[in-house]
Amino acid sequence: MARKEPAADAANPGRLKQIALTYKMTRRADKKIGLVLAAVGIVTFGVFLAIGFLIGHPIYLGILGLLLAFLATAIVFGRRAERAAFGQMEGQPGAAAAVLDNIGRGWSTTPAVAMNRSQDVVHRAVGKAGIVLVAEGNPNRVKSLLAAEKRKMNRVVADVPVHDLIVGTGEGTVELKKLRTTMLKLPRVLTGPQVTATNDRLRAMGDLMSNMPLPKGPMPKGMRMPKGGPRAR
């Protein structure tokens, strides 16, 4: 017990620091975050306290209201922090790869399976919905990358459904903040063993970026493909 208590005490400052950093990051993009969180907490607590006075149990409802106020504030904070994070990532090359990397269990993702010198890039995700190709970049240019990747995969996984999504804000594209939700809504057509077999066949096929070191998450603006680098066929 003596060893666990110091470990727990050491973890708490780390969590508090992380929350503080997240709040600062969110506040840079969402100036009203403090007022919104305060309003949510006060209104939630006030409503339950008022109900408590009406039914003659202000202490019990006050305690319940306080707990629910913390919960409501945490939920709102989490959503607005997520929105702020997506807002900062929007438009950065590689942002979609960061989202795919955190899509959840049941998906296997491979970033940058195809790329051109203009930083248009295609990522691949495999799950029970089949294969999902996620492109980011100029919508007109990425279509040729998607078509080339589909032709390449068709040699080894012709029996697996393939979906393609283009990340962006224009017509026919999916906003970065909606990418995960859109993928999770795709109909599930494969079993677990089929997903594994599909991944094995795709790995055996290889990918264009397997020999190029890429940073995780969004890539720096201005980064260019080196001359003589891999191209989509």
Radius of gyration: 23 Å
Share of helix, binned = 40-55%
How many helical elements? 7
Task: Identify the overall geometry.
Answer: elongated
Percentage of residues in DSSP E strands: 5-15%
Task: Please tell me the overall pLDDT.
Answer: 79
Query: Largest beta sheet: what is the strand line-up?
Result: 1-2-3-4
Main sheet: strands, sense, barrel: 4 strands, mixed
Number of strands: 4
The helix-strand sequence is: HHHHEEEHEHH
Unreliable residue stretches: 7-11, 208-216, 220-233
Query: Structural class from helices and strands?
Result: alpha+beta
Task: Describe what this molecule looks like in 3D.
The protein has helices spanning 4-29, 33-55, 58-89, 95-101, 139-154, 179-184, 192-205; strands at residues 108-115, 121-127, 130-136, 162-167. With 233 residues, it is an alpha+beta fold. The chain is elongated and about 70 Å long. The protein starts with a helix and ends in a 28-residue tail after the last helix. Residues 7-11, 208-216 and 220-233 have low confidence and may be disordered. The chain crosses the membrane at residues 33-53, 59-78. Residues 219-233 have a biased composition (Low complexity).
